[in-house]
Design brief:
This protein is an alpha/beta fold. Helix content is 42%, strand content 18%. The chain binds pyridoxal-5'-phosphate. Pyridoxal-5'-phosphate (PLP) binds next to strand 8 and helix 10.
Length: 219
């Protein structure tokens, strides 16, 4: 199947309100353009050094979502143009994004809080404990430019789909509880980003509003 055909097949599986992010990391501008010509506008990249040249060279109406680890010293490069940072994984990163928005004149920047759900050491994200600290820190109330729009998570890399489903169910429950709790006055807290090529169907079953699919489109 071509990139276009894979995109069309994926779109048909999306329930109302769910959006597809085409993860273009490691793929060429030509491949991105093929998806673009098939109507795709939301793209995800996980590394700043790969995102910056793509942003410069590719059409300006692409919405770039940063989905990978962001070092604080690189925040200033992405703040001017990214549609969303999905990988906010610490209080200090959140504060740096806020600071750079103010400095660079970015009025509003949507972000997601990345939650550690996989149980794996190597995956980034807030632990429940760190999340509680963030909620109690007063930092969220002080944000003027950063808009927290929901949660993002990555399930464990395993073929055991029962484990993956348990992790998605857990993130969905956390999202619901925050939506009705700490973020109940925030009309923007609506997004749940989870699911990749091998597990997006389970993620959709558990209420994902963004799925992030790379190899299922491009390779
Ligand atoms: C690479 C990546 C994806 C897409 O993974 P595929 O298995 O290729 O679909 C999704 N989310 C993040 C954070 C990624 O780094």
């Amino acid at each position: 199947m071509s990139i276009k055909e894979r995109l069309q097949a994926l779109r048909q599986e999306l329930p109302e309100g769910a959006k597809l992010i085409a993860v273009s990391k490691y793929h060429t501008n030509e491949e991105v353009l093929e998806a673009y010509d098939a109507g795709q506008r939301l793209f995800g990249e996980n590394r700043v050094q790969e995102l910056l040249p793509k942003e410069e060279q590719l059409p300006k109406d692409i919405e770039w979502h940063l989905i990978g680890t962001l070092q604080r010293n690189k925040v200033k490069y992405v703040v001017p143009f990214v549609a969303m940072i999905q990988s906010i994984d610490s209080l200090r990163l959140l504060q740096e994004v806020e600071k750079q928005c103010a400095r660079l004149g970015r009025e509003t920047l949507p972000v997601l809080l990345q939650i550690h759900i996989s149980g794996e050491e190597t995956k980034h994200g807030f632990t429940e404990e760190e999340l509680q600290e963030l909620l109690q820190s007063g930092v969220i109330e002080s944000l003027e430019h950063v808009r927290i729009c929901g949660l993002m998570g990555m399930a464990a890399l395993t073929d055991d789909m029962a484990i993956v489903e348990g992790q998605f169910a857990h993130l969905q429950a956390l999202f619901q509880s925050l939506k009705e709790g700490a973020f109940k006055e925030s009309p923007h807290f609506t997004e749940l980003s989870m699911g990749m090529t091998h597990d997006y169907r389970l993620a959709l079953k558990h209420g994902a509003t963004y799925i992030r699919v790379g190899s299922g489109i491009f390779s």
